[in-house]
From TrEMBL, chain A:
Annotated ABC transmembrane type-1 domain residues: 69-257
Origin: domain of life: Bacteria
InterPro entries reported for this sequence: MetI-like (IPR000515), MetI-like_sf (IPR035906)
Entry-linked Pfam families: BPD_transp_1 (PF00528)
Keyword Magnesium: no
Compartments in which it is found: Cell inner membrane; Cell membrane
Keyword set, alphabetical order: Cell inner membrane, Cell membrane, Membrane, Transmembrane, Transmembrane helix, Transport
Protein's membrane topology: Multi-pass membrane protein
Family as reported in the entry's similarity comment: Belongs to the binding-protein-dependent transport system permease family.
Name this polypeptide is given: ABC transporter permease
TM spans (from-to): 20-46, 67-92, 104-125, 132-153, 182-204, 237-257
The keyword Glycoprotein appears for this protein: no
From TrEMBL, chain B:
Domain named ABC transporter: residues: 5-235
InterPro entries: AAA+_ATPase, ABC_SmlMolc_Importer, ABC_transporter-like_ATP-bd, ABC_transporter-like_CS, Mo/tungstate-bd_C_term_dom, P-loop_NTPase, Transp-assoc_OB_typ2
Name of this protein: ABC transporter ATP-binding protein
Keywords, comma-separated and alphabetical: ATP-binding, Nucleotide-binding, Transport
UniProt keyword Disulfide bond, yes or no: no
Naturally occurring in which organism (per UniProt): Alsobacter ponti
Key word Nuclease present: no
Gene3D superfamilies reported for this sequence: 2.40.50.100, P-loop containing nucleotide triphosphate hydrolases (3.40.50.300)
UniProt xrefs under Pfam families: ABC_tran (PF00005), TOBE_2 (PF08402)
Top-level taxon: Bacteria
Molecular function per GO: ATP binding
Entry similarity comment: Belongs to the ABC transporter superfamily.
Amino acid sequence: MAAPRSPLDRTHPGLIAATAVVYLFLLGPLVIVFGAAFSNTTFLAFPPQGLSLRWFENAFANSAFRASFVTSMQVAFGGTGLALLLGVPAAYAMSRYRVQLPKALSVMFVLPILIPEIVAGFSMLRFLQVSLGLPVVAALLLGHALLVLPYTVRVIGASLAAFDFSAEEAAISLGSPPLKTFVTIVLPNIRSGVIAAFVLAFITSLNDVSISVFLTGPGVSTLPIQILSYVEQFFDPTVASVSVLLMVLTVAVMAAVERTLGLTTFTK
Amino acid sequence: MTQSLALDHVTAHYGTTRVLEDLSIRIAAGELVSLLGASGCGKTTTLRLVAGFMTPTEGTIRLGERDLTRLPAHRRDIGLVFQNYALFPHLSVADNVGFGLRQRGVAPDERGRRVAAMLERVGLAALADRYPAALSGGQKQRVALARALVIEPQLLMFDEPLSNLDAKLRVDMRVEIRELQRANGATAVYVTHDQEEAFSISDRVAIMDAGRIVQLDTPETLYQRPNSEFVARFVGFENMIPLAVTRREAGVAIAEGAEGTRLALPEAEFGRVPDRFVLGARPAGLAVTDADAPLGIPATLGLRTYLGRAYQYQCRTPGGALVADGPLDRPLETGQAARLVPLAQQCCILPDAGRR
Amino acid sequence: MRRLTPWLLLAPGLLLVVVVLLAPVLNTGVMPFASGRAASLYQRFFFGSYNQGVILRTLQVASVTTLVSLALGFTAAYVVSRAPAALKSLLIVAAVFPLLTGTVVRSFAWMVILGRNGMANDALLKLGLTSEPVQLLYTQFAVVVGLVYLFTPLMILSLVGVLENIDTDLPRAAASLGAPPRAVFRQVVLPLATPGLIVGSVLVFTGSFTAFATPQLLGGEEQTVLATLLYQKAMVTLDWNGASTIASAMVVMTVIVVLLMNRLARRLNPASV
């Protein structure tokens, strides 16, 4: 239902044109990566002179890419799962017992955002791998869990803020034990928040460079780091096709979420 | 310089939905007219059209000699008081009030004087440097009022200005608004859904329904002589009794309705009674009398509630449920038979149009 | 027991933050001091001419990136916030999508565009602006373009939120008081959006100040910034004392910028006091 437009609501055509240019700038490069992925030339050029799938074949044939994809998946699922396992109770505690907890506590959960990732990555390398002697995959898992913890706490916290805890009290007063109450009453009501947190965290972890670049070691790499080192050595469209596969994966995850929740989840 | 406002055959749409239909109204210079109705009746749309936040699909809006219909909002010279006050949160009270003067290019010292004088008038001189976030609801309301008044607009408009205040403050503020409007001499349009508020403050009230004005009259006329069942219900005529005149003798119309209902209506008291009509009656307009009285509406008394000034009875009658007041000195029992007799002061004669 | 419940729920999360972040970072912070050469390390970091160049370049890149994405982001956000609902959600999704694509992929896209045989050079040659391919990649320009590309969506999204939070009655009130559209924008919309502009700028500044993948891919060695210098020292030359010094300095500089900007935002927004 659009209101009849008055001069107040009219947007200057110059601004609209400028916005169109901004969006072209935002989306154009992604289109170009697609074009390069399907090209048949050995150097990176756009528009492609001919179409082929050779770079996709090249990507799939590359065992380093395959291995790093598996590592990325393990780390993203594991790290996100761990972050949810720790983040849900923390978010619940902070919403439910707000008054009893010191305010400064929330800073702890913002810290991973506040401290530059590159610094965190370097420090983790020294502390977790060198000092504590953790294996590469374990360090990666912990590092990624920490990286995405703020997202889980914040998104689920926002969900909980909209939840009326008197429903939980009502359930307990009707004889339901606390843990069961959480599972049967609270969790269903913050379901969309948990899913959104998962997706956001998963994608963040999947794309991480700054922490992973320090924690990956010889033979164990995540996909973005593998792409990074490949690009530094070879300048051919293989990476474009890997990028396309990554984008397709992202779109698939987003589409799945759109189906269940609607995309507005991300802008809240 | 105050001006009259005229809307002629105005029609407006939201998308494809028509929200205002061929609406015409004339408001005299210096007059305060309320637009009264439930939400969605078109009262706020009317205000938005006059303010210039919407353009009508048909019709014209004139303020004095000026045609406002397509004029941008900022050139209309209308003082508008918003429901949520719409104070600029980043400006102090003084700067909020001075905003309109600044747009008009009034020099800073002159502006300062006029703002100070206006704040004095609304009793906020001490709060000039505060920011809106630090004000109470009533204070915000006064700032909004001062901001609209200080530009000495040709037209003042109020969009449910008191709906966010508590009951006591609402009564105080409406007196204040009326006094300021009188002193200012500005023509004013006042939008509200509160009947008491509209009646207490206005020279005339336009009752709106479904994008049309159903009656525009003084509060007294509306209260005593509504012209339709819709308006009658709006002003408290809860009982609607369809009747037909069977006999007229010596200035008294004898009217009959549902089984056993027979009333004598002196035209000197009730006014001219048409052959078929609906008698609108407030609860206080139906007196509860003995069952063996010769005239009246036969009724069985239901639940009795105590109102302080009277007892009120939910009555079952052959024509349907009615609400009537009975005397305080003689409470009657549930289930008792009675007759209900109309009292002219609390009744009105309505056309039968809607009921067929 | 009841008083302990919240702490028991928080403990695992807090433990993760302490063990995986706080302790390592503090450990990094004390490392230059533990080495007993803190003074000389910091002196070398802040006054060595090569490092000074890197610090200045990093600040410059971050500032320019912030200003450009502010201009692009605010323009787009203003238009998006006023668009009809259906178009608005489409535009928001279009801004979210690049955000969900990784920094490596997005920087790589610009390698394709800015490379010797890339689109940019192609266009320049065709337009006759140059007779042979120009070096675009591995320049400061490339780094800024890549970072602007990275952060503009973030700016758009945070500013759309800010602009949508402005009560629609406020521009109306201003217009009814006689303010023409330009004055409504300058005197009402802009001041109310300013705190949001600052918050967005902090995000972009700190993000581009510490960005790694983009300068690594688009800047190369010629355009070393603090993040890539830290990486080189840590992983290539294995100068961990030097790397720790850079890391500590980056944390301090980031925190200072965040605090200063937050303070500015609060001062510009008396309404929230």
